[in-house]
Amino acid sequence: MISQFFVLSLRGDNIIFRDYRADVPKSSAEIFFRKVKFWKGEEGEEAPPVFNVDGVNYLHVKVAGLLFVATSRVNVSPSLVLELLQRIVRVAKDYLGVLNEESLRKNFVLVYELLDETIDFGYPQTTSTEVLKSYVFNEPITIDAARIPNLGAAAIFMQGSRRMPGTAVTKSVVANEPGGKKREEIFVDIIEKISVTFSSSGYILTSEVDGTIQMKSYLTGNPEIRLALNEDLSIGSGGGSNYEYGGSGGMGMVMLDDCNFHESVRLDDFDLDRTLTLLVIHFIITKVPPDGEFPVMNYRMTQEFKVPFKVYPTISDVGAFKAELVLKVRAEFANTITANSVVLRVPLPKSTTRATFQLELGASGQSTDFKESNKMMEWSLRKVTGGSEHLLRVKLTLSQERNANIKKETGPVSMNFTIPMYNASRLQVRYLQIVKKSKTYNPYRWVRYVTHANSYVVRL
Amino acid sequence: MCLPGNQAFFILKGTMSGHDSKYFSTTKKGEIPELKEELNSQYKDKKKDAVKKVIAAMTVGKDVSMLFTDVVNCMQTENLELKKLVYLYLINYAKSQPDLAILAVNTFVKDSQDPNPLIRALAVRTMGCIRVDKITEYLCDPLQRCLKDDDPYVRKTAAICVAKLYDINAELVEDRGFLETLKDLISDSNPMVVANAVAALAEIQESSSKVIFEITSHTLFKLLAALNECTEWGQVFILDALSSYKAKDARDAENIVERVTPRLQHANCAVVLSAVKVILQQMEHISSQDVIRTLCKKMAPPLVTLISAEPEIQYVALRNINLIVQKRPLILAHEIKVFFCKYNDPIYVKMEKLEIMIKLASDRNIDQVLLEFKEYATEVDVDFVRKAVRAIGRCAIKLERAAEKCIGVLLDLIKIKVNYVVQEAIIVIKDIFRRYPNMYESIIATLCENLDTLDEPEAKASMIWIIGEYAERIDNADELLESFLETFPEEPAQVQLQLLTAAVKLFLKKPTERPQEMIQVVLNNATQETDNPDLRDRAYIYWRLLSTDPEAAKDVVLAEKPTISDDSNQLDSSLLDELLGNIATLASVYHKPPESFVSRVKTVQKPEEDEEYLEGQDSGQNESSAPIPDSVVASVPANANRAASAAPVQPAAAPPMPDLMSDLISLDLVPVSEPTAAAPSGPPLPVIFPASAGQGLQISGRLIRRDGQVFYSLAFENNTTGPLDGFQIQFNKNTFGLAAAGPLQVPSLLPGTKADTLLPMLLFQNLSVGPPSSVLQVAVKNHQQPVWYFTDKIPLQALFLEDGKMERGSFLETWKALPDSHEVTRDLPTALISSVDATVEKLSSSNLFYIARRMLKDTNQDVLYLSCKVPYVSGKSIPFLVELTALVGSPGVKCAVKTPSPEMSPLLFDAIDFLLK
Question: From 3.40.50.80, 3.30.110.170, 3.30.450.60, 3.40.50.2300, which CATH number describes the A2-132 domain?
Fold first, then answer.
């Protein structure tokens, strides 16, 4: 099992360090940091999350600009250790509200106490904030959330580009509000990451939705919560082996390939062993929810779905040392919805020396950039309303005379965006019921949808 | 550290109760007396804050151990928060203040009987973390009670505590019967307790050679029942324990699988992977193809879902899937799309996805796959691009029907003229040519257009190989080769060797004027202007061949080569099976067997006096006088080693060692016919290359040491129908750079005859890079048969130097100087010390020298200290300090080794295991 747990800043400072077995030297944090920083002897090379140096196994995850590391001497389950690290992160977030170097340092006594209850002799014990509450006595000291940059309305869903986001609010689950009483409220977020690859002729090569229903509960007394999803939801083997329904677009049904649930979820009306021939009429999750933020359900869908954006890129020669790239983006969703922070990135031919951008007349909230060092152009649109279309012309100056490869050297176009109140899978929460303790009990309920681009790529 | 902890703490106090802040500003009194005063305050809050400050100071590395007594005094409190803080402090300082730690014992024992279960559990948990013998003694009674506590939280904590205690003092655990109590906990009503008991037992089993924890059908039932109820982590412990269970029959296996399958739906990836492991293992016992098919179908979606997790988890999942698809390709045969790379995947994920794409590539999906690879080959990351290009080549080699398409894509990529893409493409095209000879030469012209852009050795060598191989079809092959020749002396060895061979091929195929001149230049260069023995030897062999019998040269050089096969299932089946048994462990991520990276350094139980011997020295508390009792040393004859080392008989007449150079010039090409005098004595040589593999030629052999020199003792047996002659031998690069010191002296072998020989070997000739390995790859050829390749193991004992004996003083000094991380231990269960004197004699005859011996009173075990030395490049050597613990006359030897090069220790263990058999 694990020998040590530590948290390092990206500069290598030791923020938290706990030794459970005394079989790995204390210098491990330093050895680890040097190895990760200069993987393969080079700065910038990304180290894999699991590696062995001199008989010590190092496992780490990067979250919120911090490195969470565990060491072990034995043949442990790496998924267990990595999962545990992620859970420690989640527990820390639940307790501290905001997870960063400052909040960890301010609360280190609390964090050590949490760690002692979470891990004993290197074995994970419990990572449930709910359970931990009865064993942990230190009070969190919250830091002023307003001072943390990047927490605007859209940015709530933007923390960490890779990790599944969803911190609905940045306040501690445990700490009391300044007013003394906690506000009774619950957040349910349906967060979807979509990956689409378009061929050069505009066909969809692969498409996938990775979704999570995330819940963060500030309710006292752990009432039972009922969450009902679409009536036409079906779960079974989708993907390549799904011949019966393959390619038909699902006829309006929401067909998930696979899903899994938090351990507190009871599936009263649901039999997972049945296959896709089963139409689930009434899908209810009945549960006594734990405190803190946790995923109620993760799901994956490869059924075809309506893509939110179509991109039409073309590149053509316009002279011996010149080429023109035209990018057209069309928002395919309803005009009541607006996408935020839309960014398109295109690697340009290596011989590009200059790129001049020509936005449409009257375009606003848009900006363009060309990075000479890696020949990458970027087009950012602050807001894109459903149904709208935008165009950008880029005139390229090349250092080499045109060649046949100009198309091969350009692209692919990759796109980033966040679309609040939109989800690609059409999975919906039909209702969110909280079993009432009394007549006057009526907590705030928030159900929110958001879709992010994960890998949204258009080939040229 | 940029923000010191106490400063952070200061902010903390400031926000909580502003008036406290003054205590943390630098005071006139100094911090420590100030804290002392506060710790002894009569106000609880003040005490608590003081302890917090102490801990703040402790975590930033300040020494606050002088406050030990004051902090321990705060321990007797009902306030849990304060108690926990004190315990945290104790864990940290008890080791350095063992005497003071005793002060805390009473409170610990009292706390372990507190009415509050949290306090009981806390006391036992903390005591287990304090690795001080005196505390451990007092731990037993509370532990005994807590294991049978009414509260499950206390019991689950106590269960883990047994593992802690076993780690400190295994005997104590066994004597006090804790193992039995722990086993009883498997039947506990609380699943958390069951899970922790399983985890503790599994760990204890791992460090013990006795059977302690075995799953019977009775416990199996209990575990399966607890599986549904316990936390996700407990599920992992139980599943991992289940994976060691051998099902009685197919029904048993199906029953387990049925109970485990629902775990695949769990959101925790560790649960999913451990469940997959159990299912895969039980599948081996299931014969019904229908059941297996259904299981495969059920495993696919959860495995694919792992690829949607965080990238770190994805990486682990992909490494595991890589193994799973090698064994059961059907599981994911239809899911190749999910392994397509996303543009924002981290590079380590992309690389793994590529591997799996190659493994899943089939005639059905190759078009799609090639489209992806082609796209990846134009991405930014150079390593990824290279791997994508190689992937195309590997698909061509794997799928015959798709080879042409693959070559088409490679040619398209070459046309983009990106330097590293072109070079990588040429390397894989060479492999494609080897796989499909004489099929795609039409593309050579395109390749030749890119000659001048090649600057990497492997690409150059590949291109030169292609030119040589197809010299007769390339009109200007001579010109092309000449262009490389200009830089011959500066080229790396790899390129030089290829140039040499290509020039010979060209000459043999087109013996015209220009190639003739060229061959002269190359041979001159390669024989006279180089220090590389490989190159020189090869050049001499060609030279002699060409000058004696050009036709024979043709037969040798232009002989048909064995075609290569697809290497995308690289792991051999035994390793693969071992790794599949280790799914969901680190072994499955590294793709290495666990023993290659796990070295249980500290868990090895050291009896008390032993501890003093080694660690007492470390802390410098012992006197420097010899911890090895003199009486023991004296009990072994002082000249024992000496006598022993002189003992081995002189080897029968050393083989002739002709000067290589003159030999080659003067040697008649007729093979040496008189049998070599050197008939190796000793035990029969193991077969290293069986007749079944060598079309009737069988080779036995072992590396041995004679008179300070390494020899390869070999025996050749001709079971073919005709004579075999013209034997030659060559060694691949290896860890010790072993190479033949002279030609192989094997006579012409008539059918049914056998010849023995001793081949003198040199060290550090062709060193391989990478971690030390005992692998020695050998190639043997003769005139009648193709070249045979096989692998032998380098026994480290053949390298033990004669001067490996250490003085006792320097042994101790070296042992002390080496950090603990350089100590590696292994149990050799089948090794045997039948009598100390005989063993000592036997070992020193193999240059493993005796230093001292002592006896463990309580276990009656003997401990032997030995040393040996292994040569290392440029005249240096690596010392090994060995400690053998064994009960004389009964099998099982514990071997500990300390060395500056611990990575070598597996080889040493093998050697000792061999010597003690």
Answer: 3.30.450.60
